[in-house]
Structure formats: C-alpha cells, structure tokens
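**Backbone shape codes:**
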Amino acid sequence: MKKYNVAIMGATGAVGSRFLSILEERDFPVKDLCLLASERSQGKEITFSGKKYPVRVLGHGSFKGVDIVLASAGASRSLEFLPSAVKAGAVSIDNSSAFRMDKDVPLVVPEVNAHAIKRHKGIIANPNCSTIQMVVALKPLHDYGHIKRIVVTTYQSVSGGGQKKIFELAAQTEALSKVKDFYREGRHTVKKDAIREFPHQIAFNLIPQIDVFLDNGYTKEEMKMVNETRKIMEDPGIMVSATCIRVPVVYSHSESVNIETEKKITAQKARELLSKAPGVKVVDDPAKSLYPMPLDGEGKDDTFVGRIREDESVKNGLNLWVVSDNLRKGAALNAVQIAECLIDADI
C-alpha cells in the first residue's frame, strides 16, 4: 500500500490531537509525520504509533516533501502558510474558516458531496462543526423530499472554542461547587476576574453568542451555517435561519433542526431514510427515554439523530434533534475522511 507524508498544522491543539488519534485509529497510511505548531510548542515530542516525533515551528519552508496537510491552526495562519504548502506540492485540508467560501475551494463533507473533492486546486476546506453534523443528517431527507427551509438552533460545547474555554468552564464549575450557599439565589455567579474566555459566565449558564455579531443581527457563526449549508448541498435556494448558543458542555454539539420540504416526509419515512444513511445513527424511542445526548456523542464518529417528529404547524414540516462530537466528526474526523477520499481516488 502506498504511504504518504503527512503534516499537521496546530499539532498541539485540541483538534490537532484528534487528528493524530484518528489517523492512528483508522490506520491511515502514514509514511512520515511532520508536526507543526507555534514557537511555544517547540521542543515538545508527541508519540504516534509507538514512535516519538518532535514538534517543529510552522514556517513557509515546512512543507517540503509533504503529500497531505491537515490544518487546524486558525484562519490567519492558514491564509499565510497554506499557499506555501500548495506551492510545495501538498494537498491541504483546512479546518479553519479561511477558504470555506472561496469559489475555487471545495467545501466538503464526504457523506454529502465527496464528488466536489476532485475540483480542488491544492486546498480543500473542512466546514464549520455545527454545519457538518446538520448536513450529514439532512442530506438523505433533501434527496428524498427537497428541503426548502431550515430553522436550526445549536447548543454548542465549549470545546468548540478551544482548550482555554474548556479550562475556564472547569475552573468556574469548581469555584461554584465550593460556595457554601450555592443553591441560594444570588450565590451562583463567579467573580468577574474568572470570566476571560467568554463574554459572560459559562458555568450553569447559556450564552446566545458564538463569534462576533454582524450588521444583520446574526453572529458570524450563524451566518457560517447559512452560507456553508447552501454551498455543501449545492442548492443556493435553501433558506436557512440559525441561532447558535454556547452551553456548559465539554464535548459534542446538539442541534434542534426544523425543516420544510417540497415533498411530504413522514416521521416514519425520515427514520427509514436516516437509518440507511452513511455516518448517521438513529436513536429515537421516546417511550423509553431514548434520544441523542452530548454524552452519547462524545468520542463517537456517528452523527446521532432522534426526536424525529412531524411539525404540525406547517404542511410538510419535520423536527429533528441532532448530536455529534464536534472535535471528531465536526473537525478532525471529517478532515481525515477527506484525506481518505483523496488517496482512494488517487486525486
């Protein structure tokens, strides 16, 4: 079997570590591994498949001899360094937002639009985590009944914002657990100096803001879901309205998704379609309190769908509850699957 030289940008970050574990789990044909990060990680060593690899400082000359780059170092670094990777002959799969809406860059979820990969010119974009799990669940329904409109509310875990946000949730929760009169009104808030990573306290709270607000009143995260969904589904006519909320959960994003279709899809038909869909696992038995939860999705590759029911307020409406591990299918796994498609098709 042919093997490939793989570089990982952002190797010491939350997604970078998932890249490594998933490559190992899936026995990806790695010939050599180049781990790239910022200066503060220089000198570290990371073990992969029983061998230790040094972490190197990311630079424009880092990509000589590299076949595939898995990048999760932020949009600014992707914009700066990935053109150098392309120039060196590597194909880059970028987890940042840098190239997602570039008309010349495929935006790919393999279960939905793997065919788009062949159009790449050296860079393939990995979609936003919340978009990925939604389109995986909606693709089979769209193929059957053609979705006209999507209204989605996301409940996104803190890990979607990086490791520092995980630490802040943990610190705030620990601090509050030590308060003597925690359950009394007014004693469930942390001190202001304990709020650094979020605009407000995240422990025991919800924050209806992920990323910055735009002039239209939506956040940048919400508009990513609108624009990326249309590009991935290759249907600019789909109407999408999104509200994105940060919740005090460490891993896995959850979504309440309402769709309106041209052709009627019954709840039973939806279950049938989804049960056959790649990457989807239906968990939907309300009588037994069986439905997807973030803890179920953590560490798993599937996108879980439940609470499937017809929307009684419109003629052809359907409600779904969708859960997926945002660092796996929402980021690292999707990128590795793209890389697998590349090597399978020898593109």
